[in-house]
Specification:
By secondary structure, this protein is of the alpha+beta class. It contains ten helices and 13 strands.
Length: about 325
C-alpha cells in the first residue's frame, strides 16, 4: 500500500453492505482526527485508551446520521473515569467532512494499573441524536455491561434498538519508522438489517438485557453467525493499517458475502465552541449571578472541555442585564 493510499484512507468511514447475508456495516480509520482529540489534554494512558475507543465507536455509528444532525455518545459511571462524552457532527452538505470531538473527566487518584475498562464503574451508556431546530432530540440509555465500551455499545443496540450489532476495534500508539509516535484507530462495525429483529415488528420483549443472539433466528441467525466467524479472523494490524486499504480488507474477510461499498465519509477533529456560544450560555444569569462568577482579576472566564479554548470576558458584557457595548479588551 502506498503512502498516498494510506493518507487517502486515514480519517474516513467506509460504509458497506454484504448482499449475500443482508448485513450492513462500516470500516473506520482514525489518525489525525484522533490525535486532534487527544492532544488537547494530557490524559493518563488508561483514559487515552478509553477516549480513543469511544471516538472510534462514535465515528462508526455516526456515519449513518443525516446532514447537519448531531450524534452524541456518553458514558457516566461511578468509577475513576466519571464521564466520557463524544460529539459527531454530520456534514453541512454532501461531500463535506463530518466533525468529531471528545473529552473525559476522571479522578486521577483513583486510577489503577488495571485495564482501561476497569477504570469505569457502575453506570450507563447513552446515545443521543439531535436532528436540528424544532425537532425533539432522541435519547437511548442502557447499563454499562461487558468488558469494553464496544461491548456496551453492542448491548445498547440489542436492548434499545433491537438491532444485532458487532464491533471489532483496534487502537493504540503507532511507532512507524521515521514518523513521530501518534495514535491510530481502526475498526469494523456489523449490523443486521432492521427487518431481522422480531421485536421491531412485534414490540415484544422480556425486559431483560438482550444480546445480538437473542434477535436473530433461522437463516438470519446462520448468516449472522457466519459473518461474525469471518470477522473473528481479522488481525489488529489489518484494522489499524496502514498496510491494507478498507475495501481490500472487506474482500479479504467477506468476499463470499458479496460486499458492496458506498462513498466514504471523511472525518475531522472539530469543535463548535465560540465566544458567542459562551455569551449565549451566560445570558440566562443576572448581574448578581455574574458577580459570583467573576474572578479576583475582575473577569468572567470559561474553558472548553473539548478543545481547551479559553474565553476571558468583561462581566459587564454578559448576562441578561449586560451593558451594551461592554469592553472585552
Amino acid at each position: 500500500m502506498t503512502l498516498g493510499h494510506q493518507i487517502a484512507w486515514d480519517d474516513t468511514v467506509l460504509p458497506f453492505q454484504l448482499d449475500a447475508s443482508d448485513i450492513r456495516g462500516r470500516v473506520a480509520r482514525l489518525d489525525g482526527a484522533l490525535n486532534g482529540i487527544l492532544k488537547q489534554h494530557d490524559y493518563p494512558p488508561q483514559v487515552e485508551a478509553l477516549v480513543a475507543e469511544m471516538a472510534l465507536l462514535t465515528a462508526l455509528i455516526g456515519q449513518t446520521i443525516k446532514l447537519r444532525w448531531k450524534l452524541q455518545l456518553q458514558v457516566q459511571s461511578k468509577g475513576a473515569v466519571r464521564m466520557i462524552a463524544t460529539d459527531y457532527y454530520g456534514p453541512e452538505k454532501a461531500g463535506d467532512p463530518a466533525h468529531i470531538r471528545a473529552y473525559a473527566s476522571y479522578d486521577a487518584d483513583r486510577l489503577t494499573d488495571a485495564p482501561a475498562f476497569d477504570q469505569i464503574g457502575e453506570g450507563y451508556f447513552a446515545i443521543m441524536i439531535d436532528q436540528g431546530k424544532g425537532m425533539t432530540p432522541y435519547q437511548g440509555i442502557t447499563p454499562l455491561e461487558g468488558t469494553s465500551l464496544a461491548a456496551c455499545a453492542e448491548t445498547y443496540f440489542a436492548q434499545s434498538e433491537q438491532l444485532p450489532t458487532r464491533f471489532s476495534l483496534s487502537f493504540g500508539t503507532s511507532t512507524e519508522p521515521g514518523v513521530a509516535e501518534h495514535w491510530r484507530a481502526g475498526g469494523v462495525m456489523l449490523q443486521h438489517m432492521p427487518k431481522a429483529s422480531p421485536f421491531v415488528a412485534e414490540g415484544d420483549g422480556s425486559g431483560e438485557t438482550l444480546s445480538a443472539a437473542d434477535l436473530v433466528q433461522g437463516d438470519e441467525a446462520e448468516n449472522w453467525n457466519r459473518v461474525n466467524i469471518l470477522l473473528d479472523t481479522v488481525e489488529e494490524l489489518e484494522l489499524i493499517g496502514p498496510k491494507l486499504a478498507p475495501n481490500d480488507l472487506l474482500l479479504r474477510l467477506f468476499h463470499e458475502e458479496q460486499p458492496r461499498v458506498y462513498d466514504a465519509q471523511s472525518v475531522q477533529f472539530g469543535c463548535t465552541c465560540s465566544e458567542d456560544r459562551v455569551r449565549q450560555s451566560l445570558s440566562i444569569y443576572s448581574a448578581r449571578d455574574i458577580e459570583k462568577m467573576t474572578t479576583d482579576a475582575g473577569r468572567v472566564t470559561a474553558d472548553c472541555q473539548f478543545c481547551g479554548a479559553h474565553y476571558d470576558l468583561d462581566p459587564a458584557s454578559v448576562g441578561f442585564e449586560a451593558e451594551q457595548g461592554g469592553n472585552d479588551a
